[in-house]
Specification:
alpha+beta, two-stranded antiparallel sheet
Length: about 100
C-alpha cells in the first residue's frame, strides 16, 4: 500500500509551525499514525515527537448549468498534525 503525504501550506498551518513547531500534512485516509510517523522521519530526516490525525469531512457543492442545478460532494480526506523535536525544522521550499 502506497501512502500519499503532501504538506499543507496555508496561513493557519504556517502559524502553527511558527508558534508550536507543528507541521500539517494531507495524508491517505487509510494511513495510521505509525505509518505517517515513519514516512515523515524517512522523507525529511527529523525526529517526530507526536502525530495527531483528523478526518476532514467532504463539503456539499452545487452549481447552476444550462441543464439545471448540479449537486455533488467532495470526498473526505485525512489531515495529520506532526510535532517534531524543538531543535529541528522542515524546509518545504529548499528544492525550488
Amino acid at each position: 500500500m502506497e501512502i500519499m503525504i503532501k504538506p499543507i501550506i496555508t496561513e493557519k498551518a504556517t502559524r502553527l509551525t511558527e508558534k508550536l513547531n507543528l507541521y500539517t500534512f494531507r495524508v491517505s485516509p487509510e494511513a495510521n499514525k505509525y505509518q505517517i510517523k515513519e514516512l515523515v522521519e524517512q522523507l525529511y530526516g527529523v525526529k517526530v515527537v507526536r502525530v495527531n490525525t483528523a478526518v476532514v469531512r467532504g463539503k456539499n457543492k452545487s452549481r447552476w448549468t444550462k441543464s439545471g442545478l448540479l449537486r455533488g460532494k467532495t470526498s473526505r480526506w485525512k489531515k495529520a498534525y506532526i510535532a517534531i523535536a524543538n531543535d529541528q525544522n522542515i524546509d518545504f521550499f529548499s528544492n525550488i
